[in-house]
Specification:
alpha+beta; single chain; Hypothetical Protein Aq_1857, Chain: A
Length: 121
């Protein structure tokens, strides 16, 4: 593989900020989950006015085809089908006067709906 091909290859993981990891770990512990085995599942699903939308949930354990990464103590599970849409993304947590919640910064997005809930790659 040439170095140019390696540079243009799609990213194979999702980054998670320290703020997002801390919030997710707090929520998981509040639900009595084992943070050493379970994790945050980030996925893409059909829906929304732009065609695709993000989904998140806590899972007790990963699935067989998951990409498993750890960020600031948080295990993150992404299935292989979703990874092609969100590889290279960054998951952040915002806590402010205007908005509070998790936000995905996805470099693969070519357009988003007006509310930012769905996207197209």
């Amino acid at each position: 593989m040439s170095s140019e091909a390696a540079e243009n290859a799609p990213a194979t993981h999702v980054e998670v900020t320290e703020a997002a990891a801390a919030k997710a770990l707090t929520l998981m512990e509040g639900e009595g989950m084992d943070v050493d085995v379970g994790g945050l599942r980030l996925f893409v699903q059909q829906g929304g006015c732009a065609g695709l939308s993000y989904g998140m949930r806590f899972d007790d354990e990963p699935e067989d085809d998951d990409e498993i990464t750890e960020h600031h103590g948080l295990r993150v599970f992404v299935d292989s089908a979703s990874l092609k849409y969100i590889g290279g993304s960054k998951l952040d947590y915002e806590d402010g006067l205007q908005a509070e919640g998790f936000h995905v910064e996805n470099p693969n997005v070519v357009s988003e709906c007006g509310c930012g809930e769905s996207f197209r790659t």
